[in-house]
TrEMBL record:
This is Polysaccharide lyase family 1 protein. Keywords: Glycoprotein, Lyase, Metal-binding. Transmembrane segments: none annotated. InterPro entries: Pectin_lyas_fold, Pectin_lyase_fold/virulence, Polysaccharide_Lyase_1. The keyword Glycoprotein applies. Signal peptide: none annotated. GO terms for molecular function: lyase activity. It comes from the Eukaryota. The keyword Transmembrane helix does not apply.
Amino acid sequence: MRVLISAFAIGLPLVSGLAFTGAVGFGSFATGGTEAYVVTSLADSGTGTLRDATSVSGRNITFSVPGYIVLESPISLSSDTTINGQTAPSPGIGVMGREISASSKSNIIIRNLRMRQGSMETDDTKSAFNMGDATNIILDHCSIEYGVYDSVDAVGAVNVTVSNSIIAFPIGQQFGAHLETGPATWYRNLWVSAHNRQPLTKANTQYINNVVYNYQAAYTVADTSGDFSHDLIGNYFITGPSTTSASDAYYQIDDNQSAYASGNLLDSNKNGVLDGSAANTIGSAKVLSSPWNSGSAAIASLTAQQAYTTVLAGVGASPRDSVDAYVISIVESLGTEGAIIGSQADTGLANDGYGTL
């Protein structure tokens, strides 16, 4: 049954200022919800389910059950929603099969949620997570795998942060993330085995302490008349078996763009050893002598080498499950393993590639 209680009663602080302690970037002031709702069922719909929980704005959602929620249709979130996946008992909570959408909504906080769309999706125009035309959104410590159209679709999104998250093994278009409008912050994320869009960003952007592995194209702007500014600091790009041109770590970045790049490394030799060299020439972008955003230097607290260690140790939803463990193991091969896949089943993991919770 559905349970509604006071947020104070379960020890969850009401949001004041930052979305949560440690939140950074343009989405960090998302306010989320305050009316506590406990998800008590893994069913697709009905009382006590995630679908019911997100059907009304203003809710702060926790979980008393662990496991996968198999979606029969997409879930459309309401504005002013907080999803606290970290409250689920071990081994954690996830959704599989269909899209989670925050399209045209505002003030949403999602933490420690696994979103795994995969080949169960019946609509190839849907993404694992869609926040098109949304405002004030933060995803933190999420695990987003097997996206069909994009892993993350954010065209028209304003004030977005994606932090400490895994974006890996997209199928379908095999794209990581597509964001337009912005501004946006991508912070300490792990991007693995995508054809392109890690991310595609037509926006003023902070891209700080990310790790990108086995890319065909990584940080991308693509053909655009827009003149955007980009802070790229302390990122590590690592080629893998699917990488055909190491220089496509920065892809289709023309002289309409302005970039501040510092401390980025590229490991291009696929030799099983982390031994990258400096990679701070960002296409033909205008070179900025200092970050375009005054907050970028403050959150860029790690070198690229430190980012590799920190990201692999703590990225994604907790506790780490078999899918995320597989992602990490591929990256740790440092160029010798990995593939861009067409189905989650290609991983060889249990439950047709979705893994079990």
